[in-house]
Amino acid sequence: MKKKPLLIGIIVVLVLAISGGSYYMAHKNAEQKATQKAKQFIQILTQQQFDQLPSVVSNQSLQKAHYTKQTFIDKYTNIFNGIGAENLKASDLKISKIKNGQFQFSYKLNLATGLGKLPTLSYKGKLIKQGKDYVIDWQPNLIFPHMEATDKISYTEDDAVRGKILDKNGSALATNAEFHQAGIIPKELGKGTERTENINAIAQQFHISVKEIEAKLDQKWVKEDLFVPLKVVEDNQIKKMTAVQYQAVDIRYYPLGKAASTMIGYTGKVTAEDLKKDKTLSADANIGKSGLERAYDKELRGKNGGKISLIDQNGKVKEVLLEAYREDGKDLQLTIDANTQVKAYNALDNATGATVIMQPKTGELSALVSKPSYDPNLMIRGISQKEYDAYLNDERKPFANRFTQRYAPGSTLKTVTASVALDAGTLTTDKTRTISGLKWQKDKSWGNYYITRVSNVPKVNLETAFIYSDNIFFAQTGLEMGEKVLRKGFNQFIFGEKLDLPFSMEPAQISNKTSFKSQILLADTAYGQGQVLMSPIQQAITYSAFANNGKIIYGHLLANEKTKAKDAVSSKSAEIVHQAMTQVIQNPNGTAHILNGISSTLAAKTGTAELKQTQGTKGQENSFIVAFDTKKNQEFLVLSVIEDHQKIGKTATELAKPLIKELEK
Known about the structure:
Strands 1, 2, 3, 4 and 5 form a five-stranded antiparallel sheet that branches. By secondary structure, this protein is an alpha+beta fold. Helices cover about 30% and strands about 25% of the residues. The protein has three domains: about 25-150, NTF2-like, domain 1 (Nuclear Transport Factor 2, Chain: A, Roll), CATH 3.10.450.100; about 165-335, CATH 3.30.1390.30; about 340-365 and about 405-665, DD-peptidase/beta-lactamase superfamily (Beta-lactamase, 3-Layer(aba) Sandwich). Mean pLDDT is about 90; it is low at about 15-20. The protein is elongated.
């Protein structure tokens, strides 16, 4: 009898333990499900996969807030895309039971917007049972903590003013100016034949195709009473017309037009690709598309200000979520001289080519010209498809940047070959070579390959070789040096270096591979042919050594930038080359003798690089001139290249002569 109560007690304890364990396991399982759903909601949110949100929220909560699944998705998408939300990161997730199988969750959220980072947001919400699972009992305060169903998000921007690009004297190379923009009010076009006639008249007046006008009118945002921009027009194009109105707009303006377009570039509307790369950009932002406008876009563009606010149903500001103050773009001052830039552009006349002008003592770049070029103001104001196609189909490629494009430098490179040989001791000013005829080869192993020259001078020394620009003399000099000495000397200049300039440009190269493995290629390289490639900028910087006692001065474009330099050759060798270059002008037989009389201290070297498939044929000839004067207060170095100069019947030297005269004044 004593054992019976004990047995009952044990059973009761076991029953309680089992039921308690079952209750604990059930609670634990519910909590795990709730936690998993909360984590899933946050993951969808932070990854901005808003189309998946309906799968984790209560259907009843959406109905209560008067949302369908699609309008719910659109709400999140429009708000977060509208404020430029990115880098969403959640933290400090907590789950706790409240009542009737419900759980409360809380977490913190950090995110960046187009105006900057929002302060840390703290959220609270409920998880309720739906079937066998848990879902979010969604409320508008899960978008923003104090948001109610009738509230809206206001995102206003205060656009930063783009900085100017100025020349060394403060003259504008890129600025902002007010123009008139023509546009259409669609409802005023009329219907049927009337509409057709009005559109045809507008197309004719503003030089836009009917197809382009219809495309603008067919944009999704267009409404009957809204102004639809067509293009920015000149004052003489303003005319009172049916359905046409004009608005004042501030746009980018380039005073030098074509003369500086390749260097300065232009701005334009962001593309979808731009927006993917930079979430801080707004959909209607203007950014640099090419040239310096693109290279220094962030500095020039500045930072937009604005507010992100919570607005109640009465249109009043309920809460300012973020306020950022506008930071206007910085002005960019260059070493470029606007007057020199225009003169250099005009000097090229109708040629295809490039000119670089620098101060050989300081490295300041005074002019960077590429021709032909395009009108950047046309790109800004609204270029028609016909006009754009004309640029694209122009065989002279007006969009190409020729002052960064690499060319075989031709005979201008003989300056480098001579200085390297002088430093190596394989060449002296007294050394004379006996050369017979206009062509030469080292031996029969060269087969049918010969190096040719223009003048049949039997006895040639260094000075004579410069005066007549003797290819054979320099080919023999290169062979005598040997590849190892030549490469080592060339590499003392800027071959293989990436220059610190805001343009895309491949480094200057000696050859395609690290070794010639050919005496012919070694000989050709020594007089500037072979596989040597240099851009006009690289050539100008390289040849600055001969105006600076053997020291290369690196070109720079920003005002107040420090001058960078390095030793390339000895001052003695540089001076010998310098003096030989003066004879290229002063000697009646010199290839640059047409420059004689401009200045007694002017030095120059001409060059012609022939591009042909096989020897014995006639190829395209590119003409070069490098000239400098280091006389006090008249320091400049000009490097100019003319592509296929025979087409226009003038050499680079002939075209550069008036420019050099101007620079000497």
